[in-house]
C-alpha cells in the first residue's frame, strides 16, 4: 500500500490585518490596518469614512471583494481606515464630534502616530468618502500631512444637489445614500449594522458650510486630486458647468481628474462596483507615487 504524500502547506497570507488605536495628541482614534506581508509597504493609503459610517466601511462588511483594505495590501500598500473624530474610540471624549477644521487637525495628529504601527513607504495617499473627503481636502490645503502623495475623493463635490439642511436629510435618507438595491451584495444591509454609526452633531451642523469652505481652500491644494461621482449619486451636482468650476478652483493642483463610476450609489465602497472603484483609486495612487519618485511636472 502506498501512502499519499502529505498535502502542501497552505500559502502564507499576503495581508496582515489588525485593529489599532492612534494617538491624536491625547485623543484616541480607533482604526483598521492592513499590511502587505510579501513586500515592504510602497506607500500608505489612509481612508476616511463618511457621516453615519465607521472605518468598517472600507473593510468589505458584506463581501470580501468590496474591501479596500485587503485589496490595497495585496497590491503592496499599507492601508489604514480611521474612525474619524466622534466615532469609535473617540466618541466618549468627543460626544458631539468636530467640524471640518478641527477634524483635519485631529486626524493630522493621529497620522503622526501611525509610524508606531507600520512604515509609510514613499508617503501617504488620502482617500476620503463623503464627509470624510472634507477633512482630507482641508489637510491637503493646510499642508498638514508631510509626504502627501495625493487625494482620492468620492461622494463629495462643491455644490449640493440636495441641501443637507433640507427636511429628511439630517441623518440622510435611503435614496440619497444608497440608490437601487441591486447595486449591493446580498447581506449588505444586515452587515451594515456593524458599519453604521450615529453621526455627531457638530459635523452635521458643519455640512451646510462646505460649499463656501471648499471655495476658500481649493486653491491651496498642491497635490494631485481625483474625484469620483457614482452613477446614482444624489447628494451632489455633477453637471458639466459645475464640474468645470470644481476643476478650475483647484488651480494649484498639478493634476485634477474627475471620473464617473457606473452601477454605483453614494456608498460606493459597499456595492458591487467597489472593487472597480478601488482599483481605479489605487491606480491613481500609483500615478501619484510615480510622479513623486519620478519627478514629473504638471500634467493636464
UniProtKB/TrEMBL annotation:
One Pfam assignment: Abhydrolase_6
A GO molecular-function descriptor: hydrolase activity
Keywords: Hydrolase
Residues spanning the membrane: none
Domain AB hydrolase-1 per the UniProt entry, residue ranges: 45-266
InterPro entries, per database record: AB_hydrolase_1 (IPR000073), AB_hydrolase_fold (IPR029058)
Name by which UniProt lists this protein: Alpha/beta fold hydrolase
Origin species: Streptomyces justiciae
Phylogenetic lineage: Bacteria, Bacillati, Actinomycetota, Actinomycetes, Kitasatosporales
Amino acid at each position: 500500500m502506498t501512502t499519499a504524500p502529505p498535502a502542501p502547506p497552505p500559502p502564507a497570507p499576503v495581508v496582515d490585518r489588525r485593529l489599532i488605536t492612534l494617538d491624536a495628541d491625547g485623543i484616541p482614534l480607533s482604526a483598521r490596518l492592513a499590511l502587505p506581508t510579501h513586500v515592504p509597504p510602497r506607500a500608505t493609503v489612509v481612508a476616511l469614512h463618511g457621516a453615519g459610517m465607521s472605518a468598517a466601511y472600507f473593510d468589505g462588511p458584506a463581501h470580501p471583494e468590496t474591501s479596500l483594505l485587503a485589496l490595497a495590501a495585496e497590491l503592496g500598500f499599507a492601508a489604514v481606515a480611521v474612525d474619524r473624530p466622534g466615532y469609535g474610540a473617540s466618541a466618549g471624549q468627543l460626544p458631539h464630534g468636530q467640524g471640518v477644521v478641527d477634524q483635519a487637525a485631529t486626524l493630522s495628529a493621529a497620522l503622526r502616530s501611525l509610524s508606531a504601527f507600520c512604515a509609510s513607504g514613499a508617503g501617504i495617499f488620502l482617500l476620503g468618502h463623503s464627509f470624510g473627503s472634507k477633512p482630507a481636502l482641508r489637510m491637503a490645503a493646510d499642508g498638514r500631512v508631510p509626504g502627501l502623495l495625493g487625494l482620492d475623493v468620492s461622494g463629495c463635490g462643491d455644490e449640493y444637489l440636495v441641501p443637507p439642511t433640507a427636511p429628511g436629510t439630517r441623518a440622510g435618507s435611503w435614496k440619497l445614500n444608497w440608490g437601487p438595491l441591486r447595486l449591493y451584495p446580498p447581506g449588505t444591509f444586515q452587515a451594515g449594522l456593524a458599519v453604521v454609526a450615529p453621526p455627531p452633531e457638530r459635523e452635521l451642523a458643519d455640512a451646510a458650510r462646505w460649499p463656501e469652505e471648499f471655495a476658500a481652500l481649493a486653491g491651496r491644494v498642491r497635490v494631485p486630486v481625483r474625484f469620483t461621482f457614482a452613477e446614482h449619486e444624489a447628494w451632489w451636482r455633477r453637471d458639466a458647468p459645475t464640474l468645470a468650476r470644481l476643476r478650475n478652483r483647484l488651480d494649484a493642483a498639478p493634476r485634477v481628474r474627475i471620473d464617473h463610476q457606473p452601477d454605483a450609489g453614494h456608498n460606493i465602497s459597499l456595492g458591487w462596483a467597489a472593487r472597480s472603484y478601488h482599483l481605479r483609486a489605487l491606480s491613481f495612487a500609483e500615478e501619484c507615487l510615480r510622479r513623486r519618485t519620478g519627478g514629473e511636472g504638471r500634467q493636464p
